[in-house]
Design brief:
It is found in: Cell membrane. It contains 14 helices and no strands. With about 280 residues, the chain is mostly helical.
């Protein structure tokens, strides 16, 4: 009985590993291209030999990137860190607080209100860009940092995800014990609820950080001052000029390579919280 099943098991394992290998190659291919292309000058890129390290000039590209237009690229870099870092951190806190409230408290119209939150998940963010621009124009924050920061503070999917995490990680007994000990509702949330749902907080943070870091359409609508641009919009402006001036190509490619670094650092440094959450669930 075991003999006939062994080849099938081996073939299934080979097929799965092969599919995973293809997926890894597919995902790493653009990064490998960036790593090698960032070492080329404009002539090397236009010659089509981006995958070789011939004519290695990464240091020169980084120097030109830092010096071009008085270092405007790293000004965009700081803008992106501000938009993504502060925006994602505040959005995560708001989302977890809202998800905690939906899970813990009973109030009139609770499920209907949560239904509106789920409806907000279905609305694409690009469809909201123009209404948000009109609102920003009414309050006079167009072409300011607030025009990008304020809209990213709310994430309906983050609220939904936070409620799911709260339902799985926060036992009612722990909250009741804290209330019996005399803790107020804010203290219960800050000291117990937020601590227990920290894997969910980190998950929402990473999702929102990635979304804001890669956000393009909202800054395109809201901003006209280049000094307020994030990396996505600044690199797009350079790439638009590269067709007329090929010297922009190395700047765009090298800048795109550096733009990946914060995402990699965020995922690598925060993945332990996901592992802790998974093991905590298994212990329960």
């Amino acid at each position: 009985m075991s003999g006939p099943r062994t080849p099938n098991r081996w073939l299934s394992k080979t097929a799965v590993n092969g599919a995973l290998l293809l997926a890894v190659v597919y995902m790493l291919f653009p990064l490998v291209w960036l790593l090698t292309a960032a070492t080329k000058d404009a002539g090397g890129l236009l010659a089509g030999n981006a995958f070789s390290f011939e004519g290695f000039d990464l240091g020169g590209n980084l120097t030109r990137l830092a010096e071009y237009n008085d270092g405007i690229y790293f000004h965009w870099y700081l803008n992106s860190l501000l938009y993504a870092g502060v925006g994602a951190l505040a959005c995560s806190f708001v989302s977890v607080a809202a998800g905690y409230a939906f899970h813990v408290y009973d109030f009139k119209g609770k499920e209907k209100l949560f239904g509106l939150v789920l409806l907000g998940v279905l609305v694409p963010t690009t469809a909201l860009a123009l209404p948000m621009y009109l609102l920003a124009s009414e309050v006079g924050v167009v072409n300011t940092y607030w025009a990008v920061l304020i809209p990213v503070l709310v994430n309906p999917f983050g609220v939904y995800l936070s409620r799911v995490f709260c339902a799985g990680y926060i036992p009612d007994e722990a909250l009741e014990a804290a209330r019996i000990d005399g803790a107020g509702e804010l203290r219960v949330f800050w000291s117990i609820g937020l601590r227990m749902v920290m894997p969910g907080f980190v998950t929402v943070f990473l999702f929102q950080f990635t979304a804001v870091w890669n956000n393009f359409f909202l800054p395109l609508v809201m901003l006209s001052d280049q000094k307020l641009y994030p990396l996505s919009l600044g690199l797009y402006a350079w790439n638009s000029n590269a067709h007329a001036e090929p010297d922009y190509y190395p700047l765009v490619v090298t800048g795109s390579l550096l733009a990946v670094v914060p995402l990699v650092v965020a995922f690598v440094s925060l993945q332990r919280h996901w592992k802790a959450g998974l093991t905590a669930g298994s212990v329960k």
